[in-house]
Each structure stands twice: as C-alpha cells, then as structure tokens.
Design goal:
The complex is a heterodimer. Chain A is an all-alpha fold. Chain A contains eleven helices and no strands. By secondary structure, chain B is mostly helical. Chain B has one domain. In chain B, helix 2 runs parallel beside helix 9 and helix 4 packs antiparallel against helix 5. Classes of the chains: A mainly alpha, B mainly alpha. Chain B: Keywords: Cell inner membrane, Cell membrane, Ion transport, Membrane, NAD, Sodium, Sodium transport, Translocase, Transmembrane, Transmembrane helix, Transport, Ubiquinone.
C-alpha cells in the first residue's frame, strides 16, 4: 500500500497532470505567456483541486459508489437485497460539484481575501472548465484512494505539479521571445515542442521507486531497458 | 452574451449555401480546433497511442458535439446568461454519460483503455467553446454543421497523430502488425532486417512533439497563420 507521502510525490513528478496526462492543456497553453499570469492560474488550480477533490471523494464514497448508500438503509449496501449503484451519475455530479464550488470559492475569496481575489480573480471562473480539476476527481474515482487524506494529498500534489509545469513553461516562453525561432513554429508550434521536451525531462522521475518495489523480476535486467518497458506498461494500462 | 442583433440573418437561404459549407470546411484546416484555436488538447493527446482508441474517442466527440450544439441552439433563448455555463455543463455531462454507457456496453476493452478520458470530454474546451461562440447565437441547422465541421477537424488530427505514433511506436495499425513479427527470436519482415520500433513514440511527450510538427507543416504551407510570438 502506498503511503500518503508517496501519493503526494508521485502526483507531482511521475504522474504530473500536464506531462503524463495532458490535463488542463488548454489553459496551460493559453495562459502561459508571462510568469505572473502563470503563477496566478497555477495557484488557483492548486486551491480548487484541494477543495473539490475531497468533496468529490465524500460524494463518491457516500453516495455514488455501488453500495455506498448503506448509511441510509442497510438494505442498500453491498450485501443488502436492494444494492444501489449510482456510479453512472458520477460525471454529472462531479462537474456540478466543481462548477458550484468554483462559484462559491470565487464569492468567498472576493469577500474575505480581496488581495487573493485580485491575484486569482479572472482565473477562477476559467477553472470550472479546466480539465485538470475534473480529471483530478475522475482519477481519484479510478484509483480508489482508501482515505480522504490520501485523496487530498493526491489533489495537493497534482496541483503543485500543475503549478510547476505552468510556471516553468511561462519562464521558458518569456525567454524564447529573444531567440530566432523559424517563423512557422513561432507561438503555438514551439510551445508544443518545448512542452514535449519538458515532458521528456520529467520522465526521468519515472525511475524513482516509491515505497515497496513493484516487481522484483524487472530489477534483474539492466537500467534503461527496465525504465522504458515499465513506462510503456504504465502507459498501456 | 448572445444579443438579438447577432441572430438576425438573411430570411431564406439554401440548405447548403456557401456560408453553410464554409462552416464545415473551415475548421478542417484553416481554423482547425486543435492546431489553430488550441482547444480540446487535454483529451486529444493522451489517447493517441493507438488508432483504435483515437477513433472511438473521435466518434464520441462527434456525437457529443453534434447533439450538444443542437440542444444548446434549440434552448438558446431559454438559457439565462448568468447560469449558462452550468446549463451547458449539464447538457454535455448527460450526453457524455450516454456515450460512456454505450462504450462500456459495446466496446468494453476500448472503454477501459480510455478510462477517465471519456469523462473528460465534458471539459473538452472545443465543446464549450463552440457552445459559447456559435450555438448560443445561431439557429439549429448551422449549429449542427458547425459542430460536424469542428468535431471532424478535431477527429482527423487525433487519428493522424495516433496513426503516426502507432506505426512508428509499435509497428501496427489498428492492432495489426504491418512490419512483420517482432517477437524476440522469431522476427520476420522488416524486423528480420534489423528494424526496431521507436519506443519513444509511445511515450506521452511525443504526442506533443508530433502535434508541434503538424502545426509547423501547416503553417509553412499557409503563411497567413504564422504568429508573432
């Protein structure tokens, strides 16, 4: 079993939202022109992920999952006679939670933390349709974290991973303005390629082992081959 | 948001007028959702390892987009503009649930591979983008055409990237080996001559680089699209 810290580190590096799953790419590419806006959006993503993923975790475990409604009536549980499985509703519930939380957070931040609102302001509404937020909820559902603490640390780690990605891309894009990029690649094209190269750099974190070793037999083969085949297996899953 | 002035149009126009045709053809290249508008990249890149997944993803997006645009366009005068995002999200989410249930029923193994990315169609920026930019201010028929055009513009890039990655990465098309057998010890075809699959192509970052190269080629051919940094 992975520890909470493992999940956290993994979410930042090896399972980085941007480089491994391409979640939230749209705003990542659109808002990474300067470091300042990048920081703003990155903070907003961390914030909203940390709030919404635990909410969705509770929803998933106490309402949506098969047999999750045991607390209402034992009959509805897994062993009961009238098992209820609402998991088909999860998409609509998750997105509703995300959209309403974003709205709520926006109002609360505006009221109680005007300086933070000034920094995050325009980014908060954008976030309702940022894939990384819904993606966080769906991965949480897919991976079935055992406690709410694990789910939260996953959310926080993913947020930080996203933040690192957007801030470093923004920094590179600020500098790239001074270089002589082929005209047809300027703007979007080079951004894609830079992100790809950053992704390759991030792949080197794949070699890091977390907690217990997964598979003892892969360790007998030499370095590079193990990594590639492991990565490929990971991706194929 | 959608003002009434925008909706006023020529009284009658033929079913496939020039304007309507442009709605379909424009997004295919000059205004492609992925390479020009930079929308919908999130889900596009992650599932381009194999053509099969990319194909089913494209079919799902076409379905969601056409019906979503149609529904939003029909409801465009009833949706209060303050809550329109939530209304749109609910419409997309319901359509995506239908798609997800169908995929699970008819192509379960593909559905398993697509995993969370089917759900992520909900936040696919192309769909929300077209709702906002087109369906909210246009009649149903042009909205359908716009949806078809944009969804196909998305689909062909997706399938192309998947094709490149699958051919060079695993030497297959739609799961069928094209360069011969590459099992160690019993190589045949190209592999017998020493050809090796480029495993790099299967890794996530290569999707970005392939799309980057496609953008490069497209902008070299059409100089109008070149950006000023």
């Amino acid at each position: 079993m992975e520890s909470t810290l493992d999940i956290f580190v993994k979410a930042i590096f090896t399972e980085n939202m941007i480089f491994a799953y391409f979640l939230g790419m749209c705003s990542y590419l659109a808002v990474s022109k300067t470091v300042k806006t990048g920081v703003g959006l990155g903070l907003a993503v961390i914030f909203v992920l940390v709030v919404t993923v635990p909410m969705n975790y509770l929803l998933e475990n106490y309402v949506l999952k098969e047999g999750a409604l045991t607390w209402l009536n034992p009959e509805y549980g897994l062993s009961g006679s009238k098992t209820i499985d609402l998991s088909f509703l999860s998409f609509i519930m998750f997105i509703a939670v995300v959209a309403s939380i974003v709205q709520l957070v926006e109002m609360l931040v505006e009221k109680f933390a005007p300086t933070l609102y000034g920094a995050l302001g325009i980014f908060l509404p954008l976030i309702a349709v940022n894939c990384s937020i819904l993606g966080g909820a769906l991965f949480m559902q897919d991976r079935q974290y055992s406690t709410i603490l694990d789910a939260t640390s996953f959310a926080f780690g993913s947020g930080i991973g996203w933040f690192i990605a957007i801030v470093s891309l923004a920094a590179i894009r600020e500098k790239i303005r001074y270089s002589n990029v082929p005209p047809a690649l300027r703007g979007l094209g080079i951004t894609f390629i830079v992100t790809g190269l950053m992704g390759i750099a991030f792949m080197s974190f794949m070699g890091v082992e977390y907690g217990k070793k997964k598979d003892s037999k892969t360790n007998t083969i030499s370095g590079g081959a193990v990594e590639t085949s492991q990565i490929i297996n990971d991706i194929k899953q | 948001m959608s003002t009434t002035e925008e909706k006023v149009k020529a009284p009658k126009e033929p079913l496939f007028s020039k304007k309507n045709k442009r709605l379909i053809t424009d997004p295919l290249s000059d205004n492609n959702p992925i390479t020009i508008q930079v929308l919908g990249i999130c889900s596009a890149l992650a599932i381009t390892v194999q053509v099969e997944q990319a194909f089913w993803m494209s079919v799902s997006v076409i379905f969601v987009m056409v019906f979503g645009n149609l529904i939003v366009s029909l409801l465009r005068n009833l949706i209060p503009s303050r809550v329109r995002i939530i209304v749109q999200l609910v419409i997309v989410a319901s359509l995506v649930i239908i798609v997800n249930e169908c995929l699970q029923a008819f192509v379960p193994d593909v559905s398993e591979k697509l995993s969370v990315f089917v759900g992520l169609i909900i936040t696919n920026c192309i769909i929300m983008g077209r709702f906002e930019a087109f369906a909210m201010s246009n009649k149903p028929f042009p909205s359908i055409l716009d949806a078809v055009g944009n969804a196909i513009g998305y689909a062909w890039i997706l399938v192309l990237v998947a094709l490149i990655r699958e051919v060079f990465g695993s030497g297959k098309i739609w799961g069928a080996a094209i360069f011969g057998n590459n099992l160690p010890g019993e190589e045949s075809g190209l592999y017998a001559l020493g050809y090796v699959n480029n495993n790099m192509m299967i890794l996530p970052p290569m999707a970005l680089i392939v799309v980057g190269v496609i953008i490069w080629i497209q902008r070299t051919r059409n100089k109008d699209l070149v950006e000023e940094h």
